[in-house]
Amino acid sequence: MRAYRRDDEERIRLQARVRDWTRAGLLDAKQGADLDASLRTDLRRTNPMLRAVLAFFTAVIVAAAAGFFVAFFQIRDDLAVGLWLGFAALASIAAAERLIATSRFYRFGVEEALAMMAVALGSLSVMLVVGDLWAPQVRYDGSITMVATVAFAAAASLGVFARYGLVYAAVASMAFAAALPFQLNWQPWVERVVSAIVLGAVFGVARRHHQRHGDDHPGNESAILQAVSWLGVYLVLNLQLTLNLMPGMTHVPAERWFYWASYAVVWAMPPLGLWWGIRDKDSALIAVNLLLAIATLATNKPYLGWPRHSWDPMVVGALMIGTALLIRRWLASAPHQQRFGFTATSLLEADHDVVTALGNVSAAWHPHAAAPPETSDPRFGGGRSGGGGATGSF
Amino acid sequence: MTTLDALERWRSTGAITGEQHAVLTTIVRKDRFSVFLELNALLYLGVVSFVAGLGWTVYEHFARLGDAAVVVPLAAVFAACLYYCFARARPYDRARVESPNFAFDYVLYLGCLVFGVELGYIEFRFQLLRANWDFYLLASSILYFALAYRFDNRFVLSLALSTLAGWFGVRFTSFGFHIAGSLRGDALAYAGVTLAAGWSLHRLSLKPHFLETYLHIAANAALGAMVSGVIGSDHRALWLIALLAASGVAIERGINARRFAFVVYGVVYGYVGVSSQMLRLLDSISAMFAYFIISGAAVLVALVVLSRRVGREE
After folding, report:
1. Which phi and psi angles does A6 have, rounded to 5°?
2. CB A286 to CB B35 under 8 A?
3. Could B1 and A52 be called an inter-chain contact, meaning their C-beta atoms sit closer than 8 Å?
4. Which of A325, B112, B229, B236 sits most deeply, having the most CB atoms within 10 A of its CB?
5. Which of A44, A155, A134, A144 is nearest to A89 (CA)?
6. Which positions ≥6 away from A221 have C-beta within 8 Å?
7. How far B243 CA lies from chain A's nearest CA (Å)?
8. What value does the CA radius of gyration of chain A take, rounded to a whole number of Å?
9. Chain A residues with beta carbon closer than 8 angstroms to that of B174
10. Where are the domains of chain A?
């Protein structure tokens, strides 16, 4: 089923670890180079930045090629366009297969963009064909059309994941599968419960798989899927997140029992997930549940209908700072700066790379005043100063 | 083959020592598991959330609290942060200096953000500089630069650079220096100053590891301004020539230094600029699609060749 040999993917995973260990000084340079060479495969990979831009241009070409045919031959009929897009999707996936077989591309950007564009074109094709043949009266917003489209997108993305091991394809599949109940015009609470059950089932499968394989390939993939599906369950069930992020959304359950049940779940999930993450020493699960804990604190007052105060973010911020410092101090005070196998010190250089990158990109969201003061109104009328905190609305 | 199997094999063949095997096995089995990243993320989010709440509280309640109740605590927090940093800092060095402890970088960052809130409040309430209020931005930017270099803090360096960008925007507005009423001139001047400052400090071996931060910001500011000029100004041809030259430099330097982010900047900004002009010349949808197919394929082939020659990750 998989387009790549398992041994090759295991070697690539191992090679990444050897590079991390060499950068951290756990292996010397010669050892690192020798082991790296011994783990080489015939698969062709590229730098992550180039991978991203290669994927972008591949997607542009595929989309333009599909559009060119329709525009040049002036195809107006939905069915004909749908059939052409279906053919284009098949051609796209065939091209991906060909590149992998002949050029041995692996996470090269081109082959993965071809595969994902096949999913996109195929989904559009299903939408047009089903809309034309089975739901001519209700077209694109009709339940049948959308169910078929979303179901196809979920299945096709899953197929891409199974074939090429692209974790983001599995995440897309999961998202489409979770969106499926929302196309069925069920009661809002039923939609959410079914969606959460779908994501929960994915979580269960991914968790079992990860526990069996650990962090070695392919367990590294299921670790991410486990964390993302857990996050998905939370997002589906936290009604206040929906109301705040999508204020125009009408499909919010009105049942009080469901509202309070979701409140209980929203409070239960972060500690439960954190417990699992800590017990299994699972970085992805710990990180996701820390985020969920913050989201739970942020949505608690809206859930209870209590008024928000300007100092709420300060309290949450102080709580986060205090928690981080306490944990750090507690771990650092133990022999070898380690308790129960946990340490707050960095083991790999890659950890520092992430913090450095955070420092660099934080320039993008520092608030700064961009407008001169406009008024002497006693309110804070015009932004004045300061890279931090002060904004134009100040 | 699991990682533990591989480690065992490498030890038996002598590729790694028994001691290395023990250390690596401990990490792979997660007998020693680092939460360094998680704690850093928590601390960073905590500081940002705290300062956001602080700013909001000052905004909401300053009238009731009174000036002293706002200014004094903010000044006290800033002073305490600075005192902590100067008291705990390692001696200054032109090269990279590790933080003395886990919280150190974030204490300085918190202090600088609080200083920004305070400065904004003081100018709003007392209007000391009036029309020249933007010099607060310049002054705070200079302070942030000094602190970033003294304590080797990349968060504060980013804060300094973004505050400086704000000053350029405001100052050039008051000069009426905008090119065609846009912020392009400001952005180009800012990019030039940032590039020159980063390069000069690098040449002087003053925290040379900061150079990349300057370069990323300068490249995006300059290329973004040029693309904006190509798309929306009256002198598109001139802007296009400048954009192509700048993109070429970014690509060439990126390849030479193996910093592929700059290659990506050059390719993407350059492509957007050229495409915006080409699409003006094309009058049919088919021709536009054909343009994207041909131009996209040309760029793709060039990138594949580049990837195979210099961007290999095998």
Report:
1. -60, -35
2. yes
3. no
4. B112
5. A155
6. A165, A167, A170
7. 19
8. 25
9. 372
10. 353-394
In chain B, residues with a C-beta closer than 8 Å to the C-beta of A288 are none
Q: Give the closest residue to B110 by CA, choosing from B136, B77, B83, B137.
A: B77
In the stretch 92-151 of chain A, residues with CB closer than 8 A to chain B read 108, 110
Per residue in B143-187, pLDDT (tens digit) is 999 999 999 999 999 999 999 998 887 766 655 555 545 678 889
CA dihedral (A288, A293, A296, A300) in degrees, to 10, reads -170
Task: Evaluate whether A26 touches B23 at the Cβ level (below 8 Å).
Answer: yes
In chain A, alpha helices (H): 6-23, 29-38, 48-72, 78-103, 110-133, 143-164, 167-179, 188-213, 219-237, 239-245, 256-280, 283-304, 312-332, 349-361
ipTM of the complex: 0.89
Asked whether the beta carbons of residue A385 and residue B102 sit closer than 8 angstroms, the reply is: no
**What is the pTM (predicted TM-score) of this model?**
0.89
Q: Tell me if chain A has a CB within 8 Å of the CB of B173.
A: yes
Q: How far is CA B198 from CA A361, B161, B188, in A?
A: 17, 11, 15
Each residue of A282-321: pLDDT tens digit? 999 999 999 999 999 999 999 999 999 999 999 999 999 9
Neighbours of B256 (CB within 10 A): 10
Q: How far is B233 from chain A (nearest CA, A)?
A: 22
